Amino acid sequence: MNISFTRTRWLAAGAAVLILAAGCGSSSATPTAASSHAPPVLKVALITPSATNDLAFSQAMYAALQSLQAKDDLKISVQDNMFVVSDAANAMQEFASQGYNLIIANGSQYGSTVQQLAAKYPKVSFAWGTAGSTYGLKNVFAYQAAANEGGYVQGYMAGLLSKKKVIGVIGPINVGDAQLYTGGFKAGALAADQHATVHLSFTGSFSDVSLMASAAKSYVSEGADVLTGSSQSVVGAIGVAKSDNVAWFGTQWDQSSLAPADVVSSQAYNWVPVLSQIFTAIRAGKLGGATYTITLKNGGEKIEFNPGYQLPASVKAAGESVAGKIESGAITPPQ
Amino acid sequence: MSHFFTAAVLSATIASGIALGAPLLLAALGETVGQRSGVLNLGVDGIMLLAAFGAYLVALRTGSIGWGVLVALAIGVVMGLITAFINVTIGAEQGISGIGIYIAALGLSGLLFERYVGTPTPITNSRGPFVAVHIPLLDRIPYLGTMLFKQNILVYAALLLVPALTYVLHHTTYGMNVHAAGENPAAADSLGVSVTRVRYTAVIFGSTMAGLAGASLLILDGIFQENLTQGAGFIAVALVYFGGWRPAGVALGALLYGLTGSVILTWKTLGIIPLSLSDLAATAPAVIVVLALLFLVGRYRQPAALGKPYRRQ
Amino acid sequence: MSQPEGASRGRALAAAAPLGGWRAVFNRWLILPAAAIGALVIGAVIIAAMGANPLTGYHALISGAFGGSYQLASTAVKAVPLLLVGVGICISFRANVLNIGGEGQLVMGGLASAATALVLPNLPGFVLIPLVLLAGAAGGAIWGAIPGAFKAYRGVNEVLSTIMLNLVAVQLMNYLLAGPMIDRTESFAVVGRIPQTRLLSPNSWLPIIVPGTQLHLGVVIAVLVAVAAWVLLRQTGFGFRIRAVGLSTDAASYAGMAVKRTTMLALTLSGAMCGLAGTMLVFGSISHRMVTDGSLTGFTGSDGYYGIVVALFAGLSPLWTILSAFLFGGLLVGGVSMGIALNVPYSSDLVTTIVGLIVCFVVALDAVRRRSGLPAGAAGPASVRELLTRGWLRRDDARATAVAQAASGQGAAEQPVPGQASPEPAAAADQAGEAQP
Prior knowledge:
Radius of gyration of chain B: 20 Å
Shape of chain B: globular
Helix content of chain A: 40-55%
Strand order of the largest sheet of chain A: 2-1-3-4-5-11
Helix content of chain B: 55-70%
Radius of gyration of chain A: 23 Å
Structural class of chain B: mainly alpha
Largest sheet of chain B: none
Oligomer: heterotrimer
């Protein structure tokens, strides 16, 4: 094997370096693993597919966790940008084996990993969302957002607000949270004005900012004067709304900072009540088996109006009235 | 469908197609020069990402997109120097080094973004040459004016680069030297051409254009996010092969790709393509580019020394 | 490969080492570790600049990858798709076909195998598992055959077509997983459906071979495939034709070989390996579903690109790819552990950066080592450096070269010698020909 000289050498050398580094590391590292049963400190791991500052899905959960850190005595470990499902699975596995009390799998694509790992680590609690199923497991919590509710309210306001009666709605893929929000928005807009043209399209990607921006531009060139969109890639579309001075409705997180003059309102998720309930349950020894839904009624979803936007009082009042009707059950937004 | 064939929508669609194709065109033209000199640079996407981030950070901090573009160019030059050092001076395997540069730049741009910006904020780009430069008189031509003569300055730069590069590559001594370095470096060397110098300049030019492409993409999107390019640099590399290493062919490919993308997008937003087929329709630019090449007549051979490091005896 | 060749190469090395003792030792043995250390040092500086402890990080990286049986098993599982893609790359690159389409082929393999398991859930495992593996290989093979045929029969460059087919594959995946193949068994009334298949039939799961770990049968299959590919390339007529075509299509066709068919088959086979890798990602996963987040990387973890690096580091030998894939898998698995240990919000970017730096450093210093260890023109070792070009020469390809030369009648002038750029009549002729394309 003549070539093998080259290859053996570097491969062997590589292995040697790794072993060397392992030696160096182990001499200085301090073991941190501590397994305790009734935890005074709750060790919580968050695994989430996008960045924790995405002004959308991941940030909503991260911020809620942060705000509870002191009060609930949490040790928080975060793995963000885990969009590769198998990497996320490895991370969850690692957290589970390190004795974390709660692993939050903040992405519907992690569900089946949770399903398998929860069975393997019955003493670890898992929280999975957004999702409506605990797979019947006793150590899995599920959490979800009735995104169609806020979508409907904001769509209704959009229908009233639009002067040209052309509204653009952009999603990533027509599934899950995005499907609910965009569907609710469209229905709301048509309820406000049945003659409005509501364009709905999907880019095919949760992360492609350019595609979102192009879709938004396309809507604007077709005369849309109100836009909305879902997923962490909306920042591109909000940029278009800002430069073309078109009204924008946000979701998942208060997006006013992205375009202070053009964001009308945002449907903000507040996971604090859900997380509090989960922490309380875990401290009481209940590791799962419940599904929590944030809605307008229970305060987990809130329409955050942007004070920088001059929204006509009548439109705001109409929106708040629709929200009240959804809370009372007089209106049921489509799912 | 009838809604689409209104002149206003059509010209807006074509204008947006040209704008979409411009970053690809810039990067692909740069890669064309590098490949003609014999250096394959697979790191284009990474260079675009770093440059886009640099432009974003500077535009955000100074409020000036012009400074951002300059920084993007500077990052392109630096990355070109690094790329050329690894590929030309050291003579590393170009396929691996390019992927290495891409991966490192992908991580680094994300890392720097998280560290120094954190919360995504759009840049302000409401007027000036990076929004639109109206070409006097020509922009008043009905429809055609919107399509061609109200683009931002980088789009014009990309389009003007096509004839300029064609001239440089085919009618100047430097162009001949690039060709010689890519086809038969030993012969070029024996005629007194410094293969190293030619390849360095070609790689640095290519990387600088990738930097400009990154800035151009940033201006198009108005904001930076991790992996902003979504593989646009790899598409640019593919377009070099589409164009047969000629600027005009590359331009044809980039415009075809951009236009198809923009037509599909318009059809989606107009509801001409049903939601259920939305994902399938998104494959159209890639499919059409392959089919176009499949049924085009002319075929071109790649530079003979492409990917081969040269060392004098 | 014959003994005398190795011996003669050893002599060539010894004779061609004008360097001083220490420098020679450094070049031979220490430059690659130095490369890895260099990359890790830069990585350490970045980690420190971000306010974390590099030693903590690297300790976690090593122990997370190789620190115990569970970790070793995870590394082996991560190495499976890398190895299979790498083997596919060995085959196609040897035929001088640049398959950049591993990502798309992984996806098509995953889709075809998942669809098979969805349609035939009740077959017993010993039937269903082979069937699923075959379906995955077939899915990838089709996605390799298309650019293969385009290249062979229409002259469409495969770099273009494979990159473009990646873009097609991701949207096909999004369409199928959000449409025809979506999970309709679970009720997701409030949150809407997830773009994923339902839990695939347990009969189709790759059996775990070491209880308590994730180590599944795929590891064995991948190693067997690598050995089979080695035999194929080394011992069969088809493998011989692949290498001959890779050296010189002109010479191979003079020798009467079916160049077009060989080119197409090489890319098809390469695609099949990648498709098999995609199958492993679905049926060897923790989750046993196929799920999309809308991006290629979300499913493949970039294995289609990493596999190229793995194969090139292994000098395009399927056997060495086994070790190369294992080490690279360790880097990726350990990277996740490092991120957890450092507990900084941008740890995934940090890991990506360090992986990229290691690739750059190792490839650059490998070139330095090879160059300073061997004078130009020496009968050097086969080098990764001649890859991605028309016709790189490996000493063990001497037989193929001899045939090619004899057939083409061009003699030594056609022979590309690593590190030596001799005037090439063929290139000059091409150059003349390019004037009127």
